[in-house]
Amino acid sequence: MLRDKLIESGAIRFGDFTLASGKKSKYYVDIKKASTKHEILSLMGDLLAEHVKGDILAGVELGAVPLVAITAVKAKRDYLIIRKEKKGYGTSKLIEGDYRKGLTVDIIEDVVTTGSSVLRAVKILRDEGLKVERVICVVNREEGGDENLKKEGVELISLLRAKDLL
Fold first, then answer.
1. pLDDT above 90: percentage of residues in the chain
2. What values do phi and psi take at 115, rounded to 5?
């Protein structure tokens, strides 16, 4: 059902694409196309919330923010937003939201390919004294993310895998 909704919304397109990594792909995943539609966002929130175990959630700006917000509501958890870079003004924080050392964080992610961006988030959170053991994503492109996260002691839980889409 989620797969069909993602395709219907245009969030998954088939053809020839160049990814941010420079790799070529026969399909492209743009979860933002789906997360801007309330019905699909609510469905993703329900499905992601089923896997939440952490004390608090976190998501990296921009793509994961609507997902972590709806999942936080559905799972009745607070959440953090991890910035891609510090602002040059104000508090210059990389993490927005309230937390205390020792909390267990589940990271919510839209798409995991190699896991490099989510591993950056894991490091930022761990450097602040938080425990990160799980990443829950909508789509796992199955291009090394599982293995790279596992090396850091992080489990990857996926609502959909590349094989489900193709």
1. 81
2. 90, 5
> Which string of DSSP letters, residue by residue, matches 98-133?
---TT-EEEEEEEEESSSHHHHHHHHHHHHTT-EEE
Block residue for tokens 């996926």: 158
pTM of the model: 0.94
- Of 47-56, 80-89, 140-149, the poorest mean pLDDT is in 80-89
User: Which residues are within 8 A (CB) of 152 and not within 5 positions of it... i.e. 6 or more apart?
Assistant: 119, 122
Residue (of 59, 138, 73) closest to 156 by Cα position:
138
Please state the separation of Cα 86 from the chain's center in Å: 20
If one counts every other C-beta atom within 10 angstroms of the C-beta of residue 100, the result is: 10
- The domains of the chain, with CATH numbers, are 48-165 (3.40.50.2020)
CA angle 51, 140, 69 (to 5 degrees): 50
**What backbone torsions phi and psi does residue 57 show, to the nearest 5 degrees?**
-110, 160
Report the length, in residues, of the chain: 166
What's the CA gap between 28 and 92, in Å, rounded? Answer: 33
Q: Which of 136, 131, 138 is nearest to 153 (CA)?
A: 131
- The type of residue at 144 is G
Reported as a single tens digit per residue, the pLDDT across 140-158 is 999 999 999 999 999 999 9
